[in-house]
Amino acid sequence: MVTIASLQQSLWQYSAQLYAQTGMQQACLTWQDEFNGAVNGVLFTSWCDAAGYAILPSDHQTGSRNSALQRVIMYSQAHHVEPLRAQRIALKTSTASMQSTPNAYQAALAAELEAERLQQSNIIQWALPYIMEQHQEQQIAQPKAQYASYMQYHIATMLTDDTLINRAQAHTKVIADIIQRAQIRV
């Protein structure tokens, strides 16, 4: 039986496995830092592909679900993840602080990770009706290009500079290659 807890756990385990793949951590951080992307957006949509869930439309231009997913991620990012990330970064950049209280940095890192997990829970709660509908109609199938839809939507709606857009499109292929090589089953 599919429950919200089992979906949250599945996404979290998938994310940990994918993030551990060679090059994935750096690719995700580049997506986050250079293209203002959300790591959990990448992880969630690639998990959807691996699980066979069609949450997002294939046409990223008209996708109100893409927009809704983006809002869920951005809200959680602004209210949960970013404040903790800023605190961790401040601790990291303060050499004196790192030397005198290394445990404070580890605690900040753990808190940020827990905020990322909370963000994933928020995403699953948002996606639950779409997932349950597919289970009821037994429409779970092959990957449905959720990752590609999400990434293209992000690029189309969040980036305006042509050079940055071209770099972001190339970067989505780097991430897609890592995902494909990983072949993680859900």
Please provide a written account of the structure:
By secondary structure, the chain is mainly alpha-helical. The protein has one domain. 78% of the residues lie in helices and 0% in strands. It is globular, with a radius of gyration of 17 Å. The mean pLDDT is 89.
| Net shape | globular
Kindly name the structural category. Answer: mainly alpha
Mean of pLDDT: 89
Spatial separation of the terminal alpha carbons: 15 Å
Provide the low-confidence segments as ranges: none
Estimated radius of gyration = 17 Å
The run of helices and strands is HHHHHHHH
Counting DSSP H or I runs of 4 or more residues, the number of helices is 8
Largest sheet: none
Strand content: under 5%
Number of strands: 0
The percent of residues in helical segments reads: over 70%
Taken together, the total number of domains comes to 1
List keywords for this structure.
about 190 residues, mainly alpha, about 0% strand
Task: List strands and helices in order, with pairings.
Blueprint: H1 4-19, H2 24-35, H3 39-51, H4 64-93, H5 95-100, H6 102-136, H7 146-158, H8 162-182
Helix pairs in contact: 1-3, 1-6, 2-8, 3-7, 4-6, 7-8
Question: How would you summarize what this structure contains?
Answer:
The chain is 78% helix and 0% strand. With 186 residues, the protein is mainly alpha-helical.
